[in-house]
Amino acid sequence: MPLTPFHLAIQVRDIDEAREFYGRKLGFPEGRSSDHWIDFNVFGHQVVTHLNPALGKDGSVQAIANPVDGHGVPVPHFGVVLTFEDWERFAEQTRQVIDRFIIEPYVRFQGQPGEQGTLFFSDPSGNALEFKGFRDIDSELFAR
């Protein structure tokens, strides 16, 4: 079955802050929008930021962390699987604009099935994002 784009709706504390972060800082093209939500094209996938006034200007989405390869991986999180070359370019781009990584870009599970480049950071509302890169997505994405 061919892969198709996913749609993900997340809550944010401030629409203008989301526009600045996803659109201007990360460079994801903006699609449709209103005063309460914005569509972003995240590597061909539709991520929609929805205003949640209950978070307040200083609030953030709650998360926990689970251990993976010696790091605390935030849950929930979302992200995109990329080719390794695209991941390397994105990792370099994010190093220029992200002040604090949850997990700095590195290669996880080196020399094992499923070896992958990974990085984690949060948006201003506390939504954790992961971007992964595989040298051969078809054989490594679900490798055991």
From TrEMBL:
Limits of the VOC domain: 4-134
Task: Show the InterPro entries listed in the entry.
Answer: Glyas_Bleomycin-R_OHBP_Dase (IPR029068), Glyas_Fos-R_dOase_dom (IPR004360), VOC_core (IPR037523)
Listed CDD domains = VOC_like
Which PANTHER family does its entry note?
PTHR39434, VOC DOMAIN-CONTAINING PROTEIN
Protein name stated in the entry:
Glyoxalase
